[in-house]
protein-ribulosamine 3-kinase (Python bivittatus), 309 residues
Amino acid sequence: MEAALRRELGTSVLRPAGHSGGGCISHGESFHTDHGKVYVKCNAKAEARRMFDGEMASLTTILQTQTVKVPKPIKVIDLPEGGALFVMEHLDMRSLNRHAEKLGIQLADLHLHNQKLGEKLKKDANAIGKSEDQMDIHFVEEFGFNSVTCCGYLPQVNDWQQDWVNFFTRQRIQPQMDLIEKNSGDREARELWAQLQLKIPSLFGELKIVPALLHGDLWGGNVAEDDSGPVIFDPASFYGHSEYELAIAGMFGGFSGSFYSAYHSKIPKAAGFDKRLKLYQLFHYMNHWNHFGGGYRGSSINIMKNLVK
Ligand SMILES: Nc1ncnc2c1ncn2[C@@H]1O[C@H](COP(=O)(O)OP(=O)(O)O)[C@@H](O)[C@H]1O
Ligand SMILES: [Mg+2]
């Protein structure tokens, strides 16, 4: 690993910087290099490259919005013995506390960024003698992403779709159902899903959804703060419904009331919010069921039972 890092980063200094550990999925460690301090995630799985490419694409896109701080991505490196490394800027992070409210504002800004680009595009189209726009990030009209991103280590289907409900049903829940079917052939889950699919459009009413750039895996373990303010990391981005982002945030704690009130001061709750939040949590419970086993079956089944009532 160290030889690969030295070569690929072009650094002669490579000294452990006393921060080593891991998240739920990968092992991580910080190093001093010729170019400053970096944080390296290491994963031996065959799918590591795809997972890290998705994380790199997610961080790059979030960075371009200039709304919320993320570690700057540097490089994905294949390991000769299999697996891959992901190198990014090291940040001195601690638990989110003082900056929770600011995170609420900045997350809403991230979610509104694409909509604002759309509004600007319309305005510019009407303006006479408009100037060429130099922005790297363009208005996105559909739901999806130009890279596969992994929530945990399972790949998400990010093929572009015009319709959000279709995207969420076909490309989020259905692949999880297919895995459950393959792993356990759970009959109750299959039957509930058949009923729930018919019900989903009614949970959306007349809601108009503008694609929003999402972090995609915003649980309490993927947010923090440094001296400058809030930081989010370990994203699995795609353009989707902004409400989707708050689903996993609500599942494992870590977000205070000040975070939510700041967020909703910029993006108010629309009618039917609470039920859709449950629907979006269903994805995460199923994803956990497929990652960590049957301990998450009960929650998945209960959500479906409640939503089909
Ligand atoms: N850029 C970084 N700089 C310093 N520490 C980091 C950085 N990214 C992650 N970490 C540390 O590693 C932990 C796990 O990171 P994460 O990216 O969530 O890994 P995983 O993909 O395994 O969940 C974080 O909680 C944090 O303590
Ligand atoms: Mg993580």
In short: DSSP finds nine helices and eleven strands in the chain. The chain has a mean pLDDT of 95. The two ends are 53 Å apart (CA to CA).
